[in-house]
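To illustrate the input format used throughout this study, we show a single complete record. The first block contains the structure-token representation of the backbone; no residue identities are included at this stage. The design step must infer an amino acid for every position from geometry alone.
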């Protein structure tokens, strides 16, 4: 069995957090102990005088995680921009070792860890690491979340190409927020040769910002066989 999965996206805002939450809940429903992780978050919000990552809150709440925020989200930056710029504007440097230590703690504690990346695979984390390096070091296969927007074919195929270039394993692609025609989905499958694990429609009652899940877990489980995500191919 895999020890976790790394959820990346064709772009920022495509639904990585929503899909990662649905994966975590579906795997927990299999009876496994699940951890969630957002290694780096920018755009921290203030709640009761404390800085929080909305993504980490959303991921934790769906599985009732009691893990320490310091290991779920070891790097939290306030400016809502790329991590390296956010760090420089905040006058801090990103300590990548904190990420490795936090992942190790979660991995030792749980059967399965769902990690959400930041933006896409080539978002820089520090001078020498991109998001792809996090997945590589954690030795986790990717789920690529793609959205229904003009440019998604290009972004998704570029993501697949780069993942292959970095020898990252790809479990498959999840198309999120499908609105009308799914013609573009067939194009992505044809040119990438990566399985489309399923498509999730746009749902009015889903919101990371308001921490509401609607029927996302039911939709996900109807559409996607979570065993494919858990099973390690030999
Ligand atoms: N299937 C869906 N139906 C309706 N709204 C959705 C769906 N999936 C995601 N959203 C909404 O779209 C927005 C972006 O989703 P999400 O935050 O999961 O993206 P992300 O890829 O994690 O973004 P980021 O790069 O900021 O981490 C959020 O407001 C979320 O509530
Ligand atoms: Mg997110």
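Output of the design step:
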């Amino acid at each position: 069995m895999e020890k976790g999965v790394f959820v990346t996206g064709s772009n920022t805002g495509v639904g990585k957090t929503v899909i990662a939450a649905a994966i975590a809940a579906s795997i927990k429903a299999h009876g496994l102990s699940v951890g969630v992780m957002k290694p780096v978050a920018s755009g921290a919000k203030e709640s009761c005088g404390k800085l929080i990552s909305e993504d980490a809150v959303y991921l934790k709440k769906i599985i009732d995680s009691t893990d320490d925020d310091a290991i779920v989200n070891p790097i939290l930056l306030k400016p809502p921009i790329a991590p390296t710029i956010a760090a420089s504007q905040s006058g801090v440097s990103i300590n990548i070792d904190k990420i490795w230590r936090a992942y190790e703690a979660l991995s030792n504690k749980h059967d399965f860890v769902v990690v959400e990346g930041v933006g896409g695979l080539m978002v820089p984390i520090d001078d020498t690491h991109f998001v792809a390096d996090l997945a590589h070091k954690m030795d986790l296969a990717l789920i690529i979340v793609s959205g229904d927007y003009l440019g998604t074919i290009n972004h998704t195929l570029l993501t697949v190409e780069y993942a292959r270039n970095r020898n990252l394993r790809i479990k498959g692609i999840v198309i999120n927020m499908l609105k009308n025609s799914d013609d573009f989905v067939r194009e992505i499958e044809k040119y990438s040769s990566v399985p489309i694990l399923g498509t999730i429609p746009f749902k009015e009652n889903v919101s990371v910002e308001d921490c509401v899940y609607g029927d996302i877990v039911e939709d996900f489980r109807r559409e996607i066989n979570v065993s494919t995500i858990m099973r390690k191919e030999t």
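Structural context for interpreting the output: Residues 16-17, 55, 116 surround magnesium ion (ligand 2) (CB under 6 Å). Residues 75 and 95 are 8 Å apart (CA to CA).
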